[in-house]
């Protein structure tokens, strides 16, 4: 394992991508993913700011959506200092580092989302994550730039030599499903809920969708469990159609 993926979501400045890469490599992290960057990650300013860590920029996976960036991961943390009014576990960087080590020891892949410099992550990005990662700092001033946030979280991971024993449920031989499988199920469910009219109020739809996604993510579902849920949704839809035809 090479440690958690560092995922920069819609970063605005080339220099910040460079300094984030530098912070990663200081702590032995090499899996850099960039979602819809506003600037070119290979801009000369990014390369200069990386100060020798430009190999991470050259090898970075650049994608258009957060969903693409986390598709192959099993556990995702999101960094935010604001209350998003979603029911999610909250870790400090040290707690998250221990949890990541434990997850990696079980063969799971982890990642951490970092939002744009000016606004931070959007609620839909936060909804994709399993756990919120918040840095306990001075409550009167807790502003970090992108590279500082990456360095702080990466350093805690680097300093955690061994996995901490964490509460776990027996899941048999199969671990948590990948985000790709989970997001595919979400799309299936939401498509059918749109069709039946459950999500019919436009103003309330985004919040309802995020609430549903958060509920299922807290369940830490396996791939087999997701397949079962696909089957449940399919049978409910089939039954509704049969019932409608019988009228």
From TrEMBL:
A Pfam family this chain is assigned to: SpoU_methylase
UniProt similarity note: Belongs to the class IV-like SAM-binding methyltransferase superfamily. RNA methyltransferase TrmH family.
Principal location class: cytoplasm
Range of residues in the leader sequence: none
Ranges in a coiled coil: none
UniProt KW keywords: Cytoplasm, Methyltransferase, S-adenosyl-L-methionine, Transferase, tRNA processing
Domain of life: Bacteria
Residue span(s) of domain tRNA/rRNA methyltransferase SpoU type: 5-155
GO biological process, one term: tRNA nucleoside ribose methylation
Catalysed reactions, semicolon-separated: uridine(32) in tRNA + S-adenosyl-L-methionine = 2'-O-methyluridine(32) in tRNA + S-adenosyl-L-homocysteine + H(+); cytidine(32) in tRNA + S-adenosyl-L-methionine = 2'-O-methylcytidine(32) in tRNA + S-adenosyl-L-homocysteine + H(+)
Class of this enzyme: transferase
Function: Catalyzes the formation of 2'O-methylated cytidine (Cm32) or 2'O-methylated uridine (Um32) at position 32 in tRNA.
A GO MF term: RNA binding
One GO CC term, this protein: cytosol
Subunit note: Homodimer.
EC number(s) reported in the record: 2.1.1.200
Name of the protein described by the UniProt record: tRNA (cytidine/uridine-2'-O-)-methyltransferase TrmJ
Compartments, as annotated in UniProt: Cytoplasm
């Amino acid at each position: 394992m090479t440690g958690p993926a560092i995922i920069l979501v819609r970063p605005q400045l080339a220099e910040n991508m460079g300094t984030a890469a530098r912070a990663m490599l200081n702590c032995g992290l090499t899996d850099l993913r960039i979602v819809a960057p506003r600037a070119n990650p290979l801009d000369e300013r990014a390369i200069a700011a990386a100060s020798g860590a430009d190999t991470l920029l050259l090898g970075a996976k650049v994608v258009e959506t957060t969903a693409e960036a986390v598709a192959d991961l099993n556990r995702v943390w999101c960094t935010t200092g604001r209350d998003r009014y979603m029911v999610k576990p909250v870790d400090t960087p040290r707690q998250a580092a221990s949890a990541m080590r434990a997850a990696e020891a079980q063969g799971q892949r982890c990642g951490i989302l970092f939002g744009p410099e000016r606004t931070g992550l959007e609620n839909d990005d936060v909804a994709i994550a399993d756990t919120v990662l918040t840095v306990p700092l001075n409550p009167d001033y807790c502003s970090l730039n992108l590279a500082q946030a990456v360095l702080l979280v990466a350093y805690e991971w680097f300093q955690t030599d061994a996995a901490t024993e964490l509460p776990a449920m027996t899941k048999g031989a199969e671990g948590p499903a990948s985000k790709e499988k989970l997001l595919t199920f979400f799309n299936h469910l939401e498509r059918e809920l749109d069709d039946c009219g459950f999500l019919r109020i436009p103003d309330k739809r985004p919040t309802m969708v995020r609430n549903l996604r958060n509920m299922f993510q807290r369940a830490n579902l396996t791939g087999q469990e997701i397949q079962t849920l696909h089957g449940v949704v399919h049978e409910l839809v089939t039954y509704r159609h049969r019932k409608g035809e019988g009228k």
